TrEMBL record:
Protein name: Basic membrane protein A
Domain ABC transporter substrate-binding protein PnrA-like: residue ranges: 48-351
Cleavable signal peptide: 1-22
InterPro entries membership: BMP_lipoprotein (IPR050957), Peripla_BP_I (IPR028082), PnrA-like (IPR003760)
Membrane-topology descriptor: Lipid-anchor
Originating species: Kitasatospora atroaurantiaca
Annotated keywords: Cell membrane, Lipoprotein, Membrane, Signal
Length: 356
């Protein structure tokens, strides 16, 4: 999942070049030698992406953003450069990463995750001619050259809660959050509300792996596995993790428990290469279509009509959804369709703060 809502983008030309990006863990994927690369050269659009903790390959949040970038590279012919984050890094490291992308001429630059909010605001103010996008964060103090790409995670999580409450045999379910933050509490709030809509007597065991400023809870499969095992030991047989790559550990723990089910997040985790071996234990995933937001942002920039302000992707706009890989929630389709209709029509208002 990985957290609820964020993205950032930047553009500007400079003279440091790719060497400065390498120092920040960036990976150049310039395709000017290809036919689509030629289009990029003609349009001059160079897109930089700064990943959140876990980076490309987390099978979750960052990978969803990466899919949008890959699609833009393939279909729009843009030149891209990717910069990886480090666990335990300082705020200055995030600023340096963004500055390096700007100086190397990447525009726009997309920041993946709310942890970039302060860094994006500072770098954007210093570079008013550069366009930035930040995923999963919106601030009243951010400058006008920053676009927020946000999601209604609580709505997709509500549907995950409906599925969990319908599937559980023990009448006990669990929720694991990577970092106790406003964003992840939206996942928790929606999930609990969805469970309660089916059966308010079902308890939802809740575990957060870390609290800010410790964000390692998004990149520690060992902690995720331990937390899931603790909930399984208390009788939970369906566990939803909104914890980035830490959720991979939770899925592993659930797969070792007969009759237990995991609910993935951000990407369709039953279809991810590193997790496909657990696909028969993944009930569904609350898919957060970060790839759609990233691609839409880049295409708008290429078309000369950039997105501005806050662009929210909700259930009605297909910004969030449930995966159906494996067919394990097919029997609840009517119930899930009814819940979806109630949300998109406005009949059901899903809370963004956990109730009770």
């Amino acid at each position: 999942m990985r957290r609820s809502l964020k993205l950032a983008a930047v553009v500007l030309s400079g003279s440091l070049g790719i060497a400065s990006l390498a120092a920040c863990g960036a990976k150049s994927t310039d395709n000017t030698s290809s036919s689509t690369g030629a289009a990029a050269g003609a349009s001059g659009l160079k897109v930089g992406m700064a990943y959140d903790i876990g980076g490309r390959g987390d099978q979750s949040f960052n990978d969803s953003a990466a899919r949008g970038l890959d699609k833009a590279k393939s279909e729009l012919g843009v030149t891209v450069n990717e910069a990886e984050a480090k666990t335990g890094e300082a705020e200055a490291d995030k600023e340096t990463r963004l500055k390096s992308l700007v100086t190397a001429g990447y525009n726009p630059v997309i920041a993946v995750g709310f942890v970039y909010q302060s860094a994006v605001e500072k770098v954007a103010k210093d570079n008013p001619n550069v366009k930035f996008a930040i995923i999963d964060s919106a601030s009243a103090t951010q400058p006008s050259n920053v676009t927020s790409l946000t999601f209604s995670e609580q709505e997709g999580s509500y549907l995950a809660g409906v599925a969990a409450a319908s599937k559980t045999k023990t009448k006990k379910v669990g929720f694991i959050g990577g970092v106790q933050s406003e964003l992840i509490k939206k996942f928790e709030a929606g999930y609990k509300a969805g469970v309660a809509s089916v059966d308010p007597s079902i308890p939802v065991f809740t575990t957060y792996l870390t609290t800010p400023p410790d964000f390692s809870g998004f990149n520690d499969p060992g902690k995720g596995k331990e937390a899931a095992q603790g909930q399984l030991d208390k009788g939970a047989d369906v566990i939803y993790s909104a914890a980035g790559s830490s959720g991979n550990g939770a899925i592993e723990a659930v797969s070792n428990k007969q009759g237990a089910w995991a609910i993935g997040v951000d990407s369709d985790q039953a279809a991810q290469p590193a997790l496909v071996k657990y696909k028969d234990h993944i009930l569904t995933s609350m898919v957060k279509n970060v790839d759609t937001a990233v691609y839409s942002y880049i295409k708008a920039a290429k078309d000369g009509n950039p997105l501005t302000g806050v662009k929210n992707f909700d259930l009605k706009a297909n910004g969030v959804s449930l995966s159906t890989t494996g067919g394990f929630i097919d029997e609840y389709k009517a119930k899930l369709d009814a819940a979806t209709q109630a949300i998109t029509s406005g009949a059901t208002k899903v809370p963004t703060v956990p109730q009770g």
